[in-house]
Specification:
CATH class of the largest domain: Alpha Beta
Strand order of the largest sheet: 5-4-3-2-1-12-13-14
Distance between the termini: 20 Å
Shape: globular
Structural class: alpha/beta
Largest sheet: 8 strands, mixed
CATH topology of the largest domain: Rossmann fold
Number of helices: 12
Radius of gyration: 18 Å
Number of strands: 14
């Protein structure tokens, strides 16, 4: 099978445990593109953050962002398509997050809305320009959404306490008009039920003149499942969870050992 496109998740996949792009992954992406294969980012991150990493690894211009709620462009510096959460469910979900006491970020197009407390938490490890340029600090994200009728693409929540995540997930899952998923053990992500990486990638393939069955997708977590189900060649990282591995046609090495690079070379037929 000849593949036209490779979709790469970022965290736990194309990024190593230090959240950087290794030289091996950068070289593999360059080689794939020299073979005429489109290489795109497919991530839960907002467009400005995704664009930074796309440029670091030399990927193509188009991106699946915000967990499939948006399509974005590196060169245009923003979203080209949005599937937002309906306003009332977004307000209710944000209120649950604040009531439970988790740190959170609200994704709305090219902007991230956070509270002063959340800013202190996320700024401990998010120092990249994409985060710094897109964040806007507000006293209460739930109140800001409510009063400004904000069109929300995604709500990202993090906690080190499993019971808080479980409590929030249970309460939010009962709200009509939202979907809850996760990209790691310490977070939940809230998006529209109509949005997922698989649907967004299918739209992107149509735009690029190819079909989803001619795609390779590489991922590691729950928010990659729809994308992996959709493509012709689903690939799981060696560090992926068991559910992701169970649907993969190929399991590569971990993100600490350049698993993305190894998968690209193997599936496109070049020995390392």
């Amino acid at each position: 099978m000849k593949y036209d496109l490779i979709a790469l998740d970022l965290d736990g996949t194309a990024l190593n445990p230090h959240n950087t792009v290794s030289p091996a992954v950068r070289e593999a992406v360059a080689w794939a593109r020299s073979c005429g294969v489109h290489v795109v980012i497919s991530t839960g991150r907002i467009c400005s953050e995704a664009a930074e990493f796309a440029q670091m690894m030399g990927a193509n211009d188009e991106m699946v962002t915000s967990g499939g709620a948006t399509l974005s462009s590196v060169s245009k510096g923003g979203c080209t398509m949005r599937i937002s959460i309906p306003w009332e469910p977004a307000v209710r979900a944000a209120a649950v997050v604040e009531r439970v006491g988790m740190t959170s970020m609200i994704y709305a197009g090219e902007h991230l809305y956070i509270t002063p407390y959340d800013e202190m938490f996320f700024s401990q490890y998010k120092t990249n320009e994409g985060f710094l340029s897109s964040k806007q600090v507000v006293p209460s994200v739930a109140e800001y959404i409510a009063t400004h009728h904000l069109s929300v693409d995604k709500i990202f929540c993090r906690s080190r306490e499993p019971f808080m995540l479980q409590m929030a997930r249970r309460q939010i899952a009962s709200i009509p008009g939202v979907r809850v998923m996760s990209s790691a053990d310490d977070n939940i992500e809230i998006i529209s039920p109509l949005a997922d990486k698989g649907s967004a990638l299918t739209m992107l393939c149509t735009h690029l003149g190819t079909t989803i069955d001619r795609c390779i997708a590489i991922g590691d977590s729950e928010n990659d499942l729809e994308m992996l189900h959709a493509v012709g060649m689903p690939v799981a990282m060696g560090n992926a969870n068991d559910e992701v591995k169970s649907i993969a046609k190929y399991i590569t090495d971990t993100n600490a050992n350049d698993g993305v690079a190894k998968a690209i070379y193997y599936l496109l037929g070049r020995e390392r």
